[in-house]
Every structure is written in C-alpha cells, then in structure tokens.
C-alpha cells in the first residue's frame, strides 16, 4: 500500500511541477485523492510529517533574528492585525454556529488569524527570499502571531505549561556550547546528526514543559543563528527535511472527504481571506513601506494556519466544539494552503499587473525600502551581493572601477556598508528599480542572484528599459544558459563549473612550472660527463 501512496503522490507532484506550480500543490492533491480512495492517515505518516515540520521550523530559526520581532513593522503590524481581524473572525464563527462559548470563539479566531508558517517558510526558501526584506517581515509577523496563539492557549487554561517553561527562552545561552560542538563536527554525517539532535531535542524539551514542540525547534535554531556553520548545517538537513515535509502536505490533504455542509462552511471561511489580507496590506503601508514590499509580504501571510487544527483538537477534547467543526476548519486550512501556494509562486508577476493600482495607496515621503534612483558615477552595477557578487565587487573596485551593489537582504547590506562598500537596498525583480535608474552611463550590469526566475525578470526589465550594454548573469546548471541568453544576457558565467575549470588550469600550470624548475644535466650538484673511454668513478 505504501508503494501505491508514494507513486500517486509522486505522479501528482510531477504533474504540478510540469504545470509550473509548486510541487506541494501536487502533494495536497495527492492526499485528497487518497482520501477519496478511502486511505486514512497512519501513525507513521503523522510522525514523519511532524518531524518534517520540526526540521523546517528549526532551519527557519537558523535564519531568524529574534530582536527583529520587536521592530515596528513586525510587532506593531502583527499585533494590530490580530486586534482587527480576531473580532471579525469571531463574529463569523458565532454567526455560522461554531460555538456559543466566547472563550472557544476567541481561541479559534486567533488561530485562524495566524498564517501558515510552514507554507510560508517552505515557499520563501524555495524562492530564495527567506532573507529578503519582505521575507523577513512575513516570517517575523507569522512567528509573532504564533506566539500570541500559544499565549492565549495558556491564558485560557487549555494548555498548562510547567513552571520550567520559561527555560525555553534561555536557549540562546546555549549558543557557545552548541557552536563549539558544531564547529568540531567536521564530517557531514556528524553535522547532520547534530542538527537532528538539536531540532528534535528542543522540540522534546518544549513538549515536556507543556509548550508546543514546534516552538522548541524554532527557538533551538534561533539560538544558533549567524553561526559560521549555519549554512552548512541547513544544507545537510535540506534533503531529509524536504522528504519529510511531503508527508505533512499529504496529511493535510488526507483530512477526510467533507460533507456538503462542511465544504460550504469551509469555503465561507476561505472567502474571508481577502479581507484578512487587505487589512494586513493597509497596516504595512501605514508603516511607511512601499506597495511592493507590503504586497509580497501580504501574499505570503494570506493563509490559515495549521495551528487552527491544534486549537480545534484541544477544544474538541474538552467537549467545547462539535466534531463537524473540526472538519470545517480542516477544509478551510487545506483550501487556503492549496490556493496560496501558486499565488505565492506568482507573487512578483501579480504585482507587476497590479502595480499601477497598488502604488496609489503608498504614503508620501521616503520609505525604509526605497530603492536608489541614481548611480552617482558608478560604472558597474551588481545585483545580488552574495559570495559571487561580493567577489566581483572587490575585484572591480580594486581595478579602480566605480561599483554600486544592490541586495534585498537588509543585514547583508549593513555588512557590506560597514566595510565601506557602496551597497544599497534594491530588488532586481522590481520593475520600479529599473524604471527609475538611469543606466546609460554604465559599462555593464552583473546579475548574481541565486534564483533563476529573479535573473530572468531582471533581464526582461533591463532590456525593456532600452539598455543595450553588457549584462552578465550567473547560472548554476547548463540548461539555464539558453534561458538567460534568450532573456537578454550577453555573458553567461557558471561559477561552479568555471571554478573547476580554473582549478584544473592552475594545476597544469603548477605541474609545468615544477617540471621547468627540475634540475637538468650539468646543473649544480651533478657529476660532469666523463670523456669517452675514461672510467666512471663511483663513491
């Protein structure tokens, strides 16, 4: 039976990828199809799905800056959004007959106000936008609202943490010890095992003190954030986590075939999502953010959270919620995730279509995510200041060339600026960036962002602007080369492949040089040749 399940899920995941949709949409559809065939979730599937969620939240924690939760755009917007949305959702639940108990209505409304941190983290990471400004804002708001839901569970007495629960907030104090062990885990399998031990151990500890295990995994990862080996640890966990997360999305789809009434009520809750999203978009704009940043963050947060299912299960265990409403909420959560996945994937394209309408709502004045409109004498523009972009910047600057770097990661920008480099906020996928920049004086543009779609979008905007100069773009797979060339790149560079070729070239140069330096006949230290017929004297 397991083989049949895997084949069905794989087939639908492959179909979704062929249709340019995230594969997780196929996994959700696979779960629904299996449910229609009478397949039910098993304890093994539940356990695998749970571990996948823990690993995802642990790796999100590795990139999380806990101090960022107290920024105005996160704490202010996230908190105010809850205050506005919860009464609306509570009234909708009361009107639909979910419960007459105000505590239950409050609990479910707060849970529904939360977005799906799992889906958000998964898509942002796949799009390489987890560290972008809108990615950081979305993750911060999502985590903040999750914490609010957990706090409410404790407050109303539906979850009873032990007095030791506060120790969870002391996880960052373990950073020196955990970092010391991680630095000495030199083999790949040791790094993987250590990461698993941290993620599962933090989750287990949180569960033992009466808190959500997911919170323990998140905090454990955050304790190691910015460690030099964090990137290596994330890469080691990636394949394992992705495989386990398939089980999570299948499990969501396996929620059961709802009755017509449950389906209609679930669709009614999904219909409230645009209102929830519109309020969030308005709040982000009121914080002074540009329409583009606000829109991208809002699309990522326009879902219902899996936490809703946890809250519903607790209420059902206490006899405070009818079993039918557990199915209704499961339908709402599953449909919101299934609809949000392709919307998130197409968020940049959607914004381009809606840009003229959305920018009308921006506040006047300078925004914290304002992009440059002048090059100030720069001859080269580098979009994407990671390892490749940073190395290119250093080389061109060393040659006396004027260079301007752009990146959408605020922390990366601060790091480069602290080293005296000219690096500003800029998202290469944003058409407004290229529309306002005067590119005529540039010798060339380097696109070194990791995501292929980002480079293709940037190339189209640059060429549509009318720029005829050199545009170089990096690729990581040979099949990407014709795509970026068709989009307008005049020079394609594959860092990994060409680094290997350069290594081979230097090895041959070193061997040739070594051969040239070898002593030859007649060199110092060699015996002179004897005359013909003379005796060869040996020591």
Automatic annotation (TrEMBL):
Domain (RCK N-terminal) ranges: 381-495
Localization: Membrane
Residue ranges occupied by any Cation/H+ exchanger transmembrane domain in the UniProt entry: 5-342
Cited Pfam families: Na_H_Exchanger, TrkA_N
InterPro entries, alphabetized: Cation/H_exchanger_TM, Na+/solute_symporter_sf, NAD(P)-bd_dom_sf, RCK_N
Keywords: Membrane, Transmembrane, Transmembrane helix, Transport
Molecular function as annotated in GO: antiporter activity
Biased composition range(s): Basic and acidic residues: 526-539
Keyword Transport belongs to the record: yes
Protein name: Glutathione-regulated potassium-efflux system protein KefC
Origin organism lineage: Bacteria, Thermotogati, Deinococcota, Deinococci, Thermales
């Amino acid at each position: 039976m397991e083989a049949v399940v895997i084949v069905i899920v794989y087939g639908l995941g492959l179909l979704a990828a062929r249709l340019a949709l995230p594969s997780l949409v196929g996994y959700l559809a696979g779960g629904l199809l299996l449910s229609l065939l009478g397949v039910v979730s098993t304890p093994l599937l539940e356990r695998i799905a749970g571990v996948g969620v823990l690993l995802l939240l642990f790796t999100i924690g590795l990139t999380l800056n806990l101090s960022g939760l107290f920024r105005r755009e996160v704490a202010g917007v996230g908190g105010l959004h809850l205050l506005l949305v919860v009464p609306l959702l509570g009234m909708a639940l009361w009107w639909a007959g979910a419960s007459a108990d105000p505590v239950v209505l409050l609990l479910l409304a707060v849970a529904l106000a939360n977005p799906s941190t799992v889906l958000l983290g998964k898509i942002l990471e796949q799009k390489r936008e987890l560290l972008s400004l809108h990615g950081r804002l979305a993750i911060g708001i999502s985590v903040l609202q999750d914490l609010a839901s957990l706090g409410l569970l404790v407050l109303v007495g539906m979850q009873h943490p032990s007095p030791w629960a506060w120790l969870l907030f002391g996880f960052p104090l373990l950073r020196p010890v955990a970092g010391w062990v991680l630095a000495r885990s030199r083999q790949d399998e040791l790094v993987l095992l250590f990461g698993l031990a941290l993620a599962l151990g933090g989750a287990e500890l949180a569960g033992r003190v009466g808190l959500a295990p997911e919170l323990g995994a998140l905090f454990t990862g955050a304790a190691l954030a910015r460690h030099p080996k964090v990137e290596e640890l994330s890469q080691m966990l990636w394949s394992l986590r992705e495989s386990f997360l398939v089980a999570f999305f299948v499990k969501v789809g396996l929620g059961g075939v709802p009755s017509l009434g449950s389906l209609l009520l679930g669709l009614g809750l999904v219909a409230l999502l645009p209102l929830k999203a519109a309020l969030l978009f308005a709040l982000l704009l009121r914080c002074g953010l540009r329409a583009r940043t606000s829109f991208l963050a809002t699309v990522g947060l326009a879902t219902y959270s899996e936490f809703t299912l946890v809250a519903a299960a607790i209420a059902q265990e206490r006899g405070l919620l009818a079993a039918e409403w557990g199915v209704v909420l499961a339908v709402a959560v599953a449909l919101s995730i299934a609809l949000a996945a392709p919307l998130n994937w197409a968020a940049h394209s959607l914004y381009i279509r809606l840009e003229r309408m959305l920018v009308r709502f921006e506040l006047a004045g300078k925004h914290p995510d304002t992009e440059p409109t002048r090059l100030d004498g720069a001859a080269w523009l580098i979009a994407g200041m990671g390892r490749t972009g940073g190395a290119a910047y250093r080389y061109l600057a060393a040659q006396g060339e004027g260079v301007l770097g752009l990146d959408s990661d605020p922390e990366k920008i601060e790091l480069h600026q602290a080293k005296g480099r000219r690096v500003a906020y800029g998202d290469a996928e944003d058409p407004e960036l290229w529309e306002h920049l005067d590119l005529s004086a540039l010798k060339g543009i380097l696109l070194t962002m990791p995501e292929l779609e980002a480079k293709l979008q940037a190339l189209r905007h640059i060429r549509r602007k009318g720029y005829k100069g050199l545009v170089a773009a990096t690729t990581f797979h040979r099949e990407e080369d014709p795509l970026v060339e068709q989009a307008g790149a005049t020079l394609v560079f594959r860092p990994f492949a060409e680094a290997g070729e350069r290594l081979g070239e230097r090895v041959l140069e070193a061997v040739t040089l070594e051969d040239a330096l070898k002593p030859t006949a007649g060199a110092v230290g060699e015996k002179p040749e004897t005359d013909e017929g003379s005796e060869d004297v040996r020591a």
